[in-house]
Specification:
Keywords: Membrane, Transmembrane, Transmembrane helix
Order of helices and strands: EEHEEHEEEEEEEHHHHHHH
Distance between the termini: 36 Å
Protein name: Reverse transcriptase domain-containing protein
Helix content: 25-40%
Pfam family, one: RVT_1
GO molecular function: 2-oxoglutarate-dependent dioxygenase activity; methyltransferase activity
Organism: Hemibagrus guttatus
Number of strands: 11
């Protein structure tokens, strides 16, 4: 997995005669101002043509953050490394500067004796290997464990509890405190919850639940538990995927001939069993199945 955190956009000026043709040499750098509301949209439009051609390699883009994910089978990395070269070539052709210092590679390999891999070379520099990295606010480790991510979420939520306690001193209505909690604290606790909750340990879940209990004492009313939040969000997300034929995971939510239940996804490891699609299918089966 190669992650590119940052790149610059310096398109060539066009539409006017260059200063060189007038006997003057001047470098003109154009681009989008940082912090502009339209910058992410314009950047997404500009990089829309940057895609992956190989089925086993996926290119994910969010604003100026780009992640390349490759599935390596039988030690064949040709497709993965080929897409890296294509990405570098595309950026060079389209006047995008890759920041190799902010690029890391993380390998997820659960074999007992994995073979050593040669480093990826990006812009004549080897890409450093990372044990974990933060992908859009969610910390992913090479062991696919979530202690580090939950520790980060707990810290953020506890910091925001300070503001809830300060608002309580102004004797605000309970409804306003609940709205503040939902928008500022619960949004942190449930960040990517459909991904990590089922695989998280009971100890880590208890840490987040203690934050909810503290908020209940401050506000003076009961709040949805972490389990309830996970179930509601997983069912909602699974229902959206099941209703969207264009979604890549739509085929995983197939109904049985009776139409009352979904087909169960076969899993061989507990890691796969605790991932989103198997657990979401079980949650949909435990609730009334809405007709599609």
């Amino acid at each position: 997995m190669v992650k590119k955190n940052s790149h610059k956009h310096t398109p060539k000026p066009c539409g006017k005669p260059s200063q060189e043709s007038c006997g003057m040499a001047k470098h003109i750098s154009t681009g989008f101002p940082q912090g502009c509301v339209l910058s992410p949209l314009l950047f997404s439009l500009y990089t829309n043509g940057c895609t992956s051609d190989h089925q086993s390699v996926k290119l994910l883009k969010f604003a100026d953050d780009t992640t390349l994910i490759g599935l390596i089978s039988d030690g064949d990395e040709s497709a993965y490394r080929g897409e890296i070269d294509r990405l570098v070539s595309w950026c060079s052709t389209n006047n995008l500067e890759l920041n190799s210092l902010k690029t890391v590679e993380m390998t997820v390999d659960f074999r007992k004796n994995p073979a050593p891999r040669p480093p990826v070379i990006l812009c004549d520099s080897p890409v450093s290997s990372a044990e974990s990295f933060c992908f859009l606010g969610t910390t992913i480790t090479k062991e696919l464990k979530w202690e580090q991510n939950i520790r980060s979420l707990t810290k953020k939520a506890q910091q925001r509890m300070y503001f809830l306690r300060q608002l309580k001193k102004f004797l605000l209505p309970v409804k306003m405190l609940v709205n503040f909690y939902t928008a500022i604290i619960e949004s942190v606790l449930t960040s990517s919850i459909t991904v990590w909750f089922a695989a998280a340990t009971a100890r880590d879940k208890a840490k987040l639940q203690r934050v909810i209990h503290s908020a209940e004492k401050v506000i003076g009313c009961s709040l949805p538990s972490l389990q309830e939040l996970y179930v509601s969000r997983s069912r909602r997300r699974a229902a959206m995927i099941a209703a969207d034929p264009s979604h890549p995971g739509n085929e995983l939510f197939r109904s049985l001939p009776s139409g009352k239940r979904l087909r169960s996804i076969r899993t061989r490891t507990s890691r796969h069993k605790n991932s989103f699609f198997p657990t979401a299918g079980s949650l949909l089966n435990s609730a009334p199945l809405t007709p599609r």
